Amino acid sequence: MDHFDWSTPFPEGVISFLDTDLYKLTMQCAVFKHYPDVPVSYAFTNRTPEKKLSRKAFSWLCEQISKLGNISLSDDELRFLQTHCKYLSTPYLNFLKEFRLKPREQLVPSFNPIGPDTGAEDELGDIHIDVHGKWVDTILYEIPLLALTSEAYFKFMDTDWNYNGQEEKAYEKGMRLLEAGCILSEFGTRRRRDYHTQALVFRGLVKASKDAEKRGWPGKLSGTSNVHLAMRFNLPPVGTVAHEWFMGVAAITNDYLGATEEALRRWIGCFGEGVLGIALTDTFGTPEFLRSFSKPVRYLPDTPNLPLSEDGSRPTISTRSYADVFAGVRQDSGDPATFVKLMREFYEKNGIKEKKTIVFSDSLDIDKCIEYKRISEEQGFQPTFGVGTYLTNDFTQITTGKKSVPLNIVIKLSSAAGNPAIKISDNIGKNTGDSAKVAEVKKLLGYVEKEWAGGDETSRWGKAEDAQP
Questions:
Q1: What is the pTM of this model?
Q2: Which one of 187, 314, 363, 420 counts the least CB within 10 Å of its CB?
Q3: Can you spell out the DSSP letters for 126-177?
Q4: What is the pLDDT of residues 44-97, one digit of tens each?
């Protein structure tokens, strides 16, 4: 139940370690176990470069970044993780209790004016944020840095909006999706307008979920990726893994033919089989992923919850493949219809008859969810939907009636253990990292270039000239 005071907007910025997506905590847990001393760097990219910050907005952003160093895990937050996230190991939670971010040592934010550097507060510029440190110490920066950058833009640059109707709009969206039978989660932390918007949106979705249940509708709200909001509403947080895990393992090993299997193996090695079992397929292209996904699971010596062999020993290899063991996959780039067909062919070829889940999470709206649900169910899958920016940054400019367009910003791992970290994905617009390394890995893996009509990263959520219906 939500017991917070709603009479005033929530404090600006980020005030909790749990104001992040669950997969950052699960990945930090895995990094803590397997790669505690690996140095990494991260790179910031604005895929909507026409949207710039003023020097005043940048100064506010730097002030908020410095405050991240004051955050620590509260006793209540620790208890919530112990109760709702039992897959997070005790050694990791003990580490998190004492953990602090050190932005002065680990971050270098910079402001580059687009014209002569006058020092004026209203001067426009491009921002960049360099992140350096051990992987386990810096992995939690991505979500707060993205959320704060978005908040800065809509606090100082595009200010022709207000909160009116946000909860109601989310309620209506939730009702439409739930009536259509969709299973959805709120995934909107990274590009939200601010925390208060996300809280209003999620409250609207929770109300829709209760009303839909009363009406006997088939859809379901499975939760939110934001751990702090999950705690406020006493719901389990939702999420598994991000591209970063596969990118980091590949860069550390520098073995792109074996990296995907190694990443899957070490994920199971941290959490065990059947836990956090949705696999992300597109880091180096889905065909390469499926090559590894079809292999038998190889166990690390300390993999948790392993059934013993008949002779009482711990097995080193399973009779089942990773595809058997994982409950399903997440589709995050490329053409969803092509992906669904590919996955059906893959499971049939591998003799896997169990009903599997596909989580869709790539720039969704209501119509896309309903269409992808139909396509998936026709092929025998259970679809679920992680809906993000469409929920937490859907605003209209008050004076013009036009869309107030979200930023498309990302922070991706750029190196690990001194090697470049890259992502290829199923859409050329989402290629990330050192271009020479991307080209080298594509050649090594026999990657076939793909473009998709819906994959324009510069206008993922519309353009300013799009009037709101």
A1: 0.94
A2: 314
A3: EEEEEEEEEHHHHTTSHHHHHHHHHHHHHHHTS----STTHHHHHHHHHHHH
A4: 999 999 999 999 999 999 999 999 999 999 999 999 999 999 999 999 999 999
Look up residue 201 and give its two tokens.
Answer: 């949106």
Rounded to whole angstroms, how far apart are CA atoms 227 and 287?
32
How far is residue 375's CA from residue 370's CA, in Å, rounded to a whole number? 9
Write out pLDDT tens, residues 216-250.
999 999 999 999 999 999 998 999 899 999 999 99
Angle, in degrees to the nearest 10, between helices 243-253 and 259-271: 120
Contact yes or no for 260/279 (Cβ under 8 A): no
The single-letter code of the amino acid at 291 is R
Contact criterion met (CB below 8 Å) for 466 and 402: yes
Give the Cα separation of 28 and 262 in Å (integer): 17
Amino acid at 190: R
Structure tokens at 334: 């490329």
CB 170 within 8 A of CB 205: yes
Cβ distance 248 to 215 under 8 Å?
no
Per the listing, tokens 């022709």 go with 160
**Nearest in space to 104 (alpha carbons), one of 142, 67, 136:** 67
Distances (CA, A) of 293 to 315, 320, 324, 360, 400: 19, 11, 9, 19, 50
